[in-house]
Amino acid sequence: MDIINEFVASISWDTVISAILHILIVLVVARVALALFLKFLHHLEERMIEKNRVEGEPPSDVAKRVETLFRLVRQAVRIVLWTLVALIVLQNMGVEIGPILAGAGILGLAVGFGAQNLVRDVISGFFFILEDQIRVGDVAIINGTGGLVERVNLRTIVLRDLAGTVHVFPNGTVSTLSNMTHTWSAWVFDIGVAYKEDTDRVVEIIKDVGRKMREDPELGPAIIEDLEIFGVNKFADSAVEIKGRIKTRPIQQWTVGREFQRRIKYAFDEQGIEIPFPHRTVYFGEASKPFDLRMFDKAGDALAPEKTGG
Q: What's the average model confidence in pLDDT over 248-277?
């Protein structure tokens, strides 16, 4: 009992009470600060979702991307805040935190070296989501491989190509990313016609096909602007090529483009516009003599000869 009494008597109760008060104040301030910050993040999250909804982005995609982003921010803030609170509490309890910080730094350095690829992937994934570079449902080309984006995670992007093959790319290894369906898409066409055709007339026919497609109750909603004609783009071997573009809603360019080509074929046939195919002329020189061409009927009898030459 004497030992206990001596220990109790040696305690500086003013110091203990002061330390407890400091710890309580730190905990209360930390809790209030965290609540205010989380409320601010929630308000900011709702504003971002509403902003993207007004711009026409699907609500489910917006909510998923924003929720993933803010979940990471909330977790990071909680970890940093409570780590600081724990260090302050230990310091008020008389614990020397210098060695703890040094040990944590060495441990963090060792973990960083061992998991640097993982950290790189997570940081890259965070910025993919933050900058809205790619989202689920987009058609993208990643490191030369194209396909439909099925998942965008913090560590990986999952892509499925047209053949059904699933490709998984760690975010840190993505060196090139081409998003074909971000905000809007386009069907770019090069239509070749014979050299004898009037290109101005051909352009009017193409524009008329574009106007009718935009007036179509099924295709019209997928087209966001009138068809654009850039003009004569190239003198090819057998054709004059006319270049243009149809702007569409994301991922609708292939549906619109295939129907556009089908209608162009019918329109050209109806207007007598020749869609050329490769031609080859055999030339024997200026001094070449005409040569006979003979056709035979089914019985093998020769018909009237025809003359041709160089």
A: 93
Q: Provide the pairing of β-strand 185-193 with 240-248.
A: antiparallel
Task: Give the strands of the sheet with 166-170, arranged side by side.
Answer: 166-170, 156-160, 145-152, 139-142, 177-179
Checking if the pLDDT of 225 tops 60, the result is yes
Q: Which helix (H) or strand (E) holds 71?
A: helix 59-92
Q: What type of residue is 42?
A: H
* CATH code (residue 228): 3.30.70.100
What's phi and psi for 143, nearest 5 deg? 50, 35
Q: What is the pTM assigned to this prediction?
A: 0.61
Tell me if 87 is assigned to some domain: yes
Look at the chain and report how many structural domains it folds into.
3
The single-letter code of the amino acid at 104 is A
pLDDT category of residue 203 using cuts at 50, 70 and 90: very high
Q: Are 194 and 237 in contact (CB under 8 A)?
A: no
Please name the amino acid found at residue 211.
R
What CATH code is carried by the domain that includes residue 173?
2.30.30.60
d(CA 42, CA 37): 9
Q: Give the integer Cα–Cα distance in Å for 60 and 68.
A: 12
CA 155 to chain centre: 16
The residue ranking higher by pLDDT, 189 or 47, is 189
